[in-house]
Structure formats: C-alpha cells, structure tokens
Amino acid sequence: MVWSAAAAGGAARCVGAGERTARAPEAGMSLTEALNRFTELGAEWVLWLLLGLSVISIAIMVERAIALYKRRGDAAALARLLQTHLDEGRVDELLAALRDRRSIEAVVLRAGLARRHEGPAAAEEAMQAAQVAERQELDRYLAFLGTVGSNAPFIGLAGTVIGIMQAFRNLGGNLQAGASSTVMSAIAEALVATLIGLLVAVPAVIAFNYFQRRIKVRINDTQVVVHTLLGYLKARSAAKTAAAADSKD
C-alpha cells in the first residue's frame, strides 16, 4: 500500500510537470509569432507614414526656397560697388548701404568691414566666421530631405513585404475557388507602398541636390567680395608699414 501511494504520487508529479511543460510555450511568444502579429496590422500605417514624410518634405522645400530667395544677391555688382567706395574712401557710406541687405555676400562683407581697422587677418577671420554661420543657416533642414530620399523607398518596401505576407496568410486560411485571385489583388495593393515610397524619395533627393548645389555656388560667390576687401586692406597695411619705415629712416 505504501509503495502504491508513492508510485501514485510520483505519477501525479510527473503528470503535473508534463502539463507545466506543455503549457510553457503558451506563456511566452516567439519572435516569429510576434512579427506575425505585427504584420497583421497591415501596410496602411506605412502609407500614412510616407504621406506624413512627404508633407514635411514639401514644407521644407518651400521654406528653403524662400530662404534662398531672400538671400539672393549679385556678387559681381557688389564687388564693383565695394571697389568704388574703397577707392573713394567712403567706407562708412558703404556700410550704410549694406545695412539692410540680406544677401550672403552683404552679410560676409559687413563682417569684414566691421573689423577692417584691426588688419587684414582679423577681417579675414570675421568673414570666414560669417561664411560658416550663413552656410549653417542655409543647410538647415536639408539633412531631413537627404534622410527621406535615402530611406523612403525602404519604408515603402517594408509596407509591400507586410502586405504580401498578409496576402499569403489569407491564402493559407482560404483555399476555396477564387482565393488566388483575391490574393493577387492584395499583392497588387501591397506594391502601392513601394510606389509611394519612390514618389516620396525622388523629389526629396532632387531638392536636396539642388539646394546643396545652390548653397555651394552662393558661398563661392562670396569669395569675390572677400578677396576684393582683403586686397584693399593688405595694400593699405603695406603702405602704412612702408610709411612707418620711411619715417624712421
């Protein structure tokens, strides 16, 4: 009797352990199951995400185009104006004329003229600092355009993959006649996500490259006025040095 009770207890413990073992997988969720449940959400959220990125990209394009337009200028004309005023010694009038101008060339030139009395080196440093500040201002938000242009196709592709997985899951659960045509229709709809991703990415890439090119050209245009002013300041500094040497002799 004792042996029978012990055997029964052992069997009960084995059965209990077996039940706990059988229930263990149900308590947790594998990574594959978690991903499958995620794909059950469908690809519509991907389309909304791409739509949001597209709206933000268009807003940035418009804002950057306006910013560049407001900072437009004629570097050659400004260089001629600078040379005329320097030759006639009317630097204060030149500063007054530049006060309300917002072009990159005018901002850089004002920075150099403000420190002209400290010598060519100080003026050059001031103009370089102004160039860097203007470049940072013009580059604002362009990183977002570059990121969208690089990643929007992959986001759209992810939506397509999710849609295709969902279509095949539906096919596996419905093998009736006509189910394959339904799945093909679902796959065609899923491919829309890839198309939307490309439509979002292409304008962003074009705008990014265009703005980068325009900014580079505008920054390079400032070199005209920079070298004009530095040439004047260096010549004046050399003349002062020569005059000081003659006075000592």
List keywords for this structure.
249 residues
Class inferred from helices and paired strands: mainly alpha
H and E string:
HHHHHHHHH
Number of helical stretches of at least 4 residues = 9
Coarse morphology: rod-shaped
Number of strands: 0
Count of individual domains: 1
Mean pLDDT across every amino acid position: 81
User: In angstroms, what separates the terminal alpha carbons?
Assistant: 131 Å
Largest sheet: none
Q: From the alpha carbons, calculate the radius of gyration and give it in angstroms.
A: 35 Å
- How helix-rich are the residues, as a percent range? over 70%
- SS strand fraction: under 5%
Low-confidence stretches: 1-27
Q: Can I get a quick summary?
A:
The protein is 87% helix and 0% strand. The chain has helices at residues 2-27, 31-39, 44-70, 75-88, 91-98, 104-114, 120-138, 142-173, 179-248. Residues 1-27 have low confidence and may be disordered.
Structure description:
- The chain is mainly alpha-helical.
- It has helices at residues 2-27, 31-39, 44-70, 75-88, 91-98, 104-114, 120-138, 142-173, 179-248.
- The chain has one domain (38-237).
- The protein has nine helices and no strands.
- The chain starts with a helix and ends with a helix.
- The relative contact order is 0.13.
- Residues 1-27 have low confidence and may be disordered.
